[in-house]
Amino acid sequence: MTLSIDDARWHPIASSDDLPFRHVFHGQLLGRELAVWRADDGNVNIWENRCLHRGVRLSIGINEGGELKCQYHGWRYANRSAGCTYIPAHPADAPARRIQNRTYPVREAFGLVWSAPSENAAFPDLPPAGAGTWLPLRPMPVNVAPEDVAAGLAKAFDAESPDSLTVRAGDAVYFVQPVDAGRSVIRGLIADPRTDTLALLRDRNRLLVKLRDRLERSAARKPAPAPLQPTYEKVSAELATMPDIAVPHGGTMIVVVKRKWQTARGVTGFELADRSGSHLPTFQPGAHIDVHLPNGLVRQYSITNGPGELLSYVVGVKREEVSKGGSHALADSVREGDLLTISEPRNNFPLRRDATRTVLVAAGIGITPILSMARFLDKSDLPYELHYFVRDADAAAFRDRLNALRGKVTVHDALARDAIRQTIGEALGRWSFAQHVYICGPGSMLEMVRALAADLDWPDEAVHFEYFRNDRVIDDSSSFEIELARSAMTLQVPAGKTILEVMREAGVTVLSSCEQGACGTCMTTVIEGEVDHQDVYLNESEKRANKAIMTCVSRAKSARLVLDI
Amino acid sequence: MKSDKLIDPVTRDLWQVIAAAEEVPIGAVETTLLLDTPIALTRDGEGQPVVWLRTVEEAGDEIDADEIVERLPVLVRYGYVWTSLGNPPPDIFPIPEYAEPDRKNMSCGSIGVNVSAPRAVENFLDMGHFPYVHTDILGAEPHTEVKEYDVEVSEERDEVLATRCRFFQPRAALSATEGIEVEYVYRVPHPFCSVLYKSCPEDESRRDVIAIFLQPMTQDRCRAHLLQSMVDSVSTITELRRFQQTIFGQDKPILENQMPRRLPLDPRAETPIRADKSAIAYRRWLSRKGIAYGVIPQAG
After folding, report:
1. Helix residue ranges per DSSP H, A354-398
2. In whole angstroms, how far apart are CA A148 and each of A142, A217, B256?
3. Is A73 in Cβ contact with B129 (below 8 Å)?
4. A244: which DSSP letter?
5. Interface residue A71 vs chain B (CB under 8 A)
6. What is the model's pLDDT at position B300?
7. Is the model's pLDDT at A366 over the cut of 90?
8. Bridge-partner residues for B186, per DSSP?
9. CA-based angle A284:A287:A292, to the nearest 5?
């Protein structure tokens, strides 16, 4: 049978031993190059061996444990999804577009790592190796067409002629890895005799060396087969152009509550996973998800995960005494095994990884995005310190995760306001180049840190925070006209009424949730006109792009707005 | 000749660099490859380069240049010998600074690279790789940001021009002692050549000039010829050469791990970011010119 680039079978591509701690292995299958690496959680990744940015081989990249870092420009790709999580040339921006490398199916069995062009093919079934286990032989590269190698193996070991690239001979099974049309690797397994293993390995190796030499001599007398021509998939049209800043309307997905636990007094941890056990979409530190609650509300929760942790998202929910019903609904009525709808992760709080020092300040439930940031910095050995302020020691959430960090992490409990101010002041110190501070906590804490930072010469662009609530006073004094392009309606928005209210009065169905410009649910595309942004959902560059509006609070600077609705 | 089919007419009519003028021996044959075509060169008694399509000559053969009748056009510019397989224009692009009397002008080696010439040009235009490839010299983590800069294609001069390029560098030049934000201007005045101007540590009013001239040997193999024209009263030529060779020695293994080796002109082949504005302009410019050598042209 002739070899095709679309050969759907599973083939071994490496020994498990080829993937030691933090290594990247250069694999080959059917003319394609593969970057093969094991993350610290044990997961084996098999990716197309090229960075999507400029085509540099990822097999020369750096395995950081949860992310793979390209040698050329330091782009980071996440374990499991191969999604890009960080682009150092633009450290202040989250890679908003879905840049995701091509991945291939992986299995690890019998001491070998296997791959196939798709998951559809049946995985080869091996009988139990007698009483013991299968022992992988030393792989033997042979510069001969795979089908000729299989035929040669069958002849040499007096086995039946193979109908595939697998040859069974006595106590051994030989798999021929089709590297290319004219190149192979023999990967053999032998039932481990438990005694004199070394002598057996040496003996088999000697036989395979002889076979290789004979096959290569005879192949040299024939014309070499033409190499397979793998093609690189094109990136999406969206990724190909240098983007105007577009605000993606992310999709939603259903997840299962895998675990629910009390992580501190008044704080419930939720672990959310895909129902079929697949990985979840790539996120970046600082990202949040919208959770659609059973009572119809939509609430935002930050992801606490570290790099490459995509089998579940862990979020923390504080049971607020005064709540519009969000935290109660989650903390009280949602149980393990329940299904929830969540959005894809969105990042309005991106972490720069180009700081000489990063100060992380969290108070109360504000620890959630800060924890994720600390875990990313920790894994990359970047200098940071984390200050976590809580009412008392029992209120500190995610202690186990905090304890696993190697950086300077301090939990400050029951400090008076002046003591908090002093602690933060000392942590900040006078600003110097490439220092950044990230704050997540109640508004009063945020204002305190901002004032302190300003006194210590910290410029605005070095002070990072995220709003989950819009505390700004909304100016609704303007009046203007809106044209709804798809509904073919023109409406007048008077002072004192929101666009959302006017649209609803006219019978237009529009989704909304927080109605204070914080959640993004009512986001609408702007076709024409200048927006008067009053929300805290869009970031500064997205606001400048004038492509989207939160109809619940934002208005028009121009006399007329045309909306895509 | 089979290779004729591979060379697009624009590339064929360009001047192409082939050797550092000083390094061509007088009265002996030097051989190289240009656009899949074996060529030979020597210098005559007056030191003038002579270039021809190589037939039976071997490198090192003694030769009397006067006997060579069928010669390829020759130009000596910026310390390098240039030739053409077609009908080249009267002259090549200007680098006026080269003529300034107090500058140290030097060739910095001709280095074979297993990558297409346009890939090497694009790498020369790129600042984002400084902290990762030229660590602690032209850049260092965590100073990785590529700030906004301007790119235009000059109609008048038919070249790509990137200005206001700034990058934080720990040791921008041999004469630099501490980290500074360095300002660059990049020109691509020829499909396979680029010239950069960078802040000069010794004289704020002037700029050091570094140029890369790529000799396309095959579609996916080239030789990089490096030129420095420096305002530096302290360093020796050897030291300056060594510095530039260190830099290029760091680029070479990265270039040789780029897949595919030819530069893809289809915008959907790779993923550009804002920092790649100059590379995007360069690829579009090559496309518009109809360059097909060393690139994977956009289908359709």
Report:
1. 367-379
2. 10, 12, 32
3. yes
4. P
5. yes
6. 62
7. yes
8. B162, B196
9. 135
* CA nearest to A264, candidates A417, A391, A404, A445: A391
Q: How much is the pLDDT for A2? A: 60
CB–CB of A242 and B144 under 8 A? no
**pLDDT of A241 above 80:** no
CB–CB contact A354 B277 (8 Å): no
At residue A351, the 3 state secondary structure works out as coil
Closest Cα in chain B to A100:
B271
Taking alpha carbons only, the member of A6, A94, A15 closest to residue A350 is: A94
- Statement: residue B179 has pLDDT above 80: no
**Backbone torsions φ then ψ of B236, nearest 5 degrees:** -85, 160
Q: Do B275 and A90 touch (CB under 8 A)?
A: yes
* Chain A residues with beta carbon closer than 8 angstroms to that of B262: none
Site of tokens 């190059």? A33
Query: What residues does A254 pair with on adjacent strands?
Result: A341
Beta bridge mates, A530: none
- Residue A246, pLDDT > 50, answer no
| Residue B202 burial (10 A CB sphere; 0-12, 13-18, 19+) | middle
pLDDT tens digits, one per residue of B125-174: 999 999 999 999 999 988 899 999 999 998 888 999 999 999 988 776 67
Which band of pLDDT confidence, cut at 50, 70 and 90, is reported for residue B4? Answer: very low
Return the CATH superfamily for domain B98-296.
Answer: Naphthalene 1,2-dioxygenase Alpha Subunit; Chain A, domain 1 (3.90.380.10)
Domain B2-83 CATH superfamily:
Rieske [2Fe-2S] iron-sulphur domain (2.102.10.10)
Structure tokens at A407: 């950086």
Q: In which element (H, E) is residue A475 found?
A: none
Domain A11-219 matching CATH 2.102.10.10: the answer reads yes
Domain A480-563 is found in CATH 3.30.565.10: no
Q: How many other CB atoms are found less than 10 A from the CB of residue A281? A: 20
Whole-angstrom Cα distance, residue A24 to residue A477?
60
Minimum-distance CB partner of B143 among A92, A240, A434: A434
Whether B5 shows a pLDDT value over 60: the answer reads no
Establish if A124 touches chain B: CB-CB under 8 angstroms.
no
Instruction: Report how far residue B284's alpha carbon sits from residue B281's, in angstroms, rounded to the nearest whole number.
Output: 5
